[in-house]
Amino acid sequence: MMIRKTWPEWRRVGRELAPISRKVRCVGSLRNPVGPLPSSIYWRRRAVALSLIALLAILVLWFATSGGGDNKGGSSKGPNPTQSITPGPTGSGPAISTAPGGRDTSSGSGGSGGSGGSGGSAGSGGPGGSGGANSADGGTSTGSGGSDGANSGSGGGSSGGGGEGTNRVPAGSPLPICAPGSLSLTLRSTKTTFGPGEKPRIEVVVKNNSASTCKADLGPKGAVVTVTSAGNDRVWSTDDCPSGDPALFFQVPGGATITHAVEWDRSKSAPGCATPPAGSVGPGTYLLEAHFPGLPVARASFALSKD
C-alpha cells in the first residue's frame, strides 16, 4: 500500500508566500464556488441568504422605529382633559317667538304691545283715529305678528295711530293682489260687552290659504265694516266718510293670518259724509258685518251696557 504524504503549505510555496496563497484561494472560491454541485446553485443559496439577512435587518429596524413612535405618540393620543365651557352673555333683546305676519291678535285694548313699547290710548287721533259724527274709520291695522314682542311698539301696540301695521305695504308694491278664492275672512269683537265710555274695538281677520305671499286692501273701503242696531237700523260704516287713505294694503304671507283693527267711537255716520241721523247711540245689542270683495259676509255682535 502506498501512503501519500501531505506537505505543509509553507513547505510547498515557501514561508513568505503561504498567506498570499491562502487569500488567493479564498477569493477564487467566492467568485467560483467549489463543490460537487453546479456554481449556479451556490449563487442562488447566497442570494437567498443575503435576502433573509436584509429582511431581518428591515424587520429589526421597523420594530425599533414603530416602538419608539408609539411611545412618543402616546402622550398625544391619550385622552385630553375635558374643557369647561363658559356660557357667554345672553342677548338683551327679546326673543322672536312669532313668524312674520303669523298669528291672530285679540287684545282687548290698544295698550302696551309688550317689550317693544306701549301704544297710545284707543282712538287718540291720527288718520283713522277718533272722530265726530262723520268719522268713518277709527282704528288701526296691524299684522298679527306685531302684537307681541319688540315689533309691537310701532305697529301692534297703539289702537289709535295712523294704521301703520308691521305688514303694511304701499299700494304700488310689486306683490300681487290676493285672489278672493285664496282668502278667508273672520270678524270678531274684542269684548262681548263694552261699558259706558268704552269704544268698541272690532277686528277683521284675514287668512291666506295659498302658499304664495300677496297683498290685500283692508282699508275702510276695501274691507267695509258696518254697525247696525238690533232693529236693523244702519248706525255706522267705515266707508261712509273715511278720514285718510281709503286704501290700506297689507302683506299676507302664504298660510299666515293678519288682523286689521277698527275702533268705533260710538258716533253715527251716513254715506257720502252726509249728515247722520239725529240722536245718540244707546245701550243694547249691535250687529257687525264685514264685506270684502269676492268673500262671504262675516258677522259678529257685541253689546253696550248702561253702566
Automatic annotation (TrEMBL):
Residues 79-89 have a biased composition (Polar residues). Residues 108-132, 140-165 have a biased composition (Gly residues). Keywords: Membrane, Transmembrane, Transmembrane helix. Residues 70-179 are annotated as: Disordered. It comes from the Bacteria. The chain crosses the membrane at residues 47-65. This is Uncharacterized protein. It comes from Streptomyces hundungensis.
